[in-house]
Fold this protein.
Amino acid sequence: MHIPLSASDNVPSPRGNAGRGTGRGVRLVEPPHPGPLLHKYVEERELSEVIQKVRCAPHLWDGLLCFDKRNDCYILMQQLLIQNIHTLMGGHPYYYYVEYQPDIEAALQDLRQREFEAGRYNPAQPFPQFPISPDSPAPGAQHESIYEAVEDAAEDGTRSILDIESVSEWPEFGVASPLSEEDLERYFGTQQPTKEMVSRKLNFLASAKRGHCVYITLFESGQPSELFFGGYSFD
């Protein structure tokens, strides 16, 4: 069913003088026909409601705990929120899993070099997508060095691990610090989380400040197996 709308000088246009001109009200949108589009419409509406709650109260990230963590929808919801949280809170999240090595500083620098050479940083890629996989876009470095890339990104930051210069025991701008034992227990219920635990609780990144990064040693069968680096860009 289509409901025609007529122009009225009493109804201001939400687009000002752009598009079809002033004096035109908000266009009504017909609901999609039953079928796959309807399911997509409902899913997007539900996601929009969740995002609105996050916008109003970021601490409601913890509310995701009400979802069944074994459900693929829960994982998808987390990933969608992680990918879109920069529009809600002003920063752009990034996170990586790399092979474990006891020298955390070396692991960080290896990761920075890998992502620089792949070109997965702003402005080579304005908004790199996460998680990183073998199929992730890799346009190649667009600068002579990491330093030049960071300088070119200016106040926006590279929106990647390139923003993080070194490792520190304490949280600071531009450094990677370990997630505290208290936070490990709070988010994962253990000081030796597995990769699966972390991937299912990425909402903990909402507590990170802009320009900050945390790292976590991931375990498998009681032994260190990987390192997780995650944080927020400056913009």
Residues 36-56 form the longest helix (21 residues). Residues 1-43, 53-70, 85-89 have pLDDT under 50 and may be disordered. The two ends are 44 Å apart (CA to CA).
